[in-house]
Amino acid sequence: MNWRKRLDWVNCITVETRYTVSLQFPGRFRQVKAPNEFGEEMYYFMRNIEINIGNTCNNECLFCMVDHRSRGFVDYKTIEREIIKAKKDGFESIGFLGGEFTLHPDVLKIIKLAKILGFKIIHIISNGRKYQDENFVKQLIKNGVNRFSVSIHSHKPEIEDYLTQRPGGFEEKIQGLKNLIKFNQSVSVNLVVNKLNYIDIPESLKYFNEMGIKDFRLNFIWLHGRAKDNNDLFLKYSDFLPWVDEIINLAKENNFTIAFEGIPACLIKDKNKLDYIGELRDLNTEVVAFNNPNKARENFNWQERKTNEFKIKHEKCALCEFKNICEGVWKDYIDIYGWEEFF
């Protein structure tokens, strides 16, 4: 199919309903039974909300976009109110993150409430270290979790443990992934692309794919928060782009899905590039967050906040064929490297 026509189709994105092309990404979509005008099987997004319960974490990741000087979680009653409100407001998909959500003392109670209220997708975004406990994984599944996103950034223990500043963390995460796979769970592995791991990413993908992982998200490092203080991790797009084609071909050959987040479409050369843009795969997400020093409630749409606050476009972007679907480039990146890679 001509990708320009595909782009026209993607341009029909609205606030309530967003469309993606033919790839099926596990656990993220609900099928539309009628094909689109190109004869492709299409999926539309559920209404999704994420609750950030606070910044307590058992890692000290060098690339973290959050300033972890603010620690602590909100209490169960606060989270309970938000879950009930989300259901009343019509959300069908709910995600939990932090910090490290699995450390919350009421994690199982929180998940069970979401299940009782009938959320179709219950998603945890985690570093995965606690999943080494098989019984804990069983309890999460029993209480209702049906999608897991696990952050692990290299198949090399020395790199992973350095990036997270937790010796032994790699082995905990690997055991955790094995437990999730053992119980046939929907698992996505998230890697933050940075100066220390980018050359090895094809090998990392092979390693995790051989374990049984079929869905990957490569998040280009956001030079924000703690990451801004660790310039040994800084990476330019031009350094990483030569590896993108190899990664896409690897995904095609091994039948797994891949998405790049934080890399504008104009920089990806593959003719089906829109299949690999993470921002086009994402659910339109409302966020309720308590990850600020006062644990005050913040409420925002994540896509809108990225576009209006954290990302930027050059005046020449107005001439780009992707202008209606591209969020732009992280402002922090442009502050450091400028626009020379783009024009």
Key words describing this protein structure:
TIM Barrel; disordered N terminus; 14 strands; single chain; 33% helix; 17% strand
Say what the CATH topology is: TIM Barrel
End-to-end span in angstroms? 28 Å
In CATH, the homologous superfamily goes by the name Aldolase class I
Outline the biggest β-sheet: 9 strands, mixed
Q: Helix segment count?
A: 11
Kindly report the average pLDDT value.
86
H/E series? HEEEEHEHEHEHHEHEHEHEEHEEH
Give your account of this protein's structure:
With 343 residues, the chain is of the alpha/beta class. The chain has one domain: Alpha-Beta Barrel (TIM Barrel), CATH 3.20.20. Helix content is 33%, strand content 17%. It has helices spanning 3-10, 76-88, 107-116, 134-143, 157-164, 169-182, 201-211, 237-254, 278-281, 302-310, 331-337, and strands at residues 19-20, 30-32, 42-44, 48-52, 93-97, 121-126, 147-151, 187-193, 215-220, 257-261, 285-289, 298-301, 311-312, 329-330. The chain has a nine-stranded mixed sheet. The longest helix has 18 residues, at 237-254.
Brief summary:
The protein contains eleven helices and 14 strands.
Helix and strand topology:
Elements: H1 3-10, E1 19-20, E2 30-32, E3 42-44, E4 48-52, H2 76-88, E5 93-97, H3 107-116, E6 121-126, H4 134-143, E7 147-151, H5 157-164, H6 169-182, E8 187-193, H7 201-211, E9 215-220, H8 237-254, E10 257-261, H9 278-281, E11 285-289, E12 298-301, H10 302-310, E13 311-312, E14 329-330, H11 331-337
Parallel strand pairs: 4-5, 4-11, 5-6, 6-7, 7-8, 8-9, 9-10
Antiparallel strand pairs: 1-3, 2-3, 11-12, 13-14
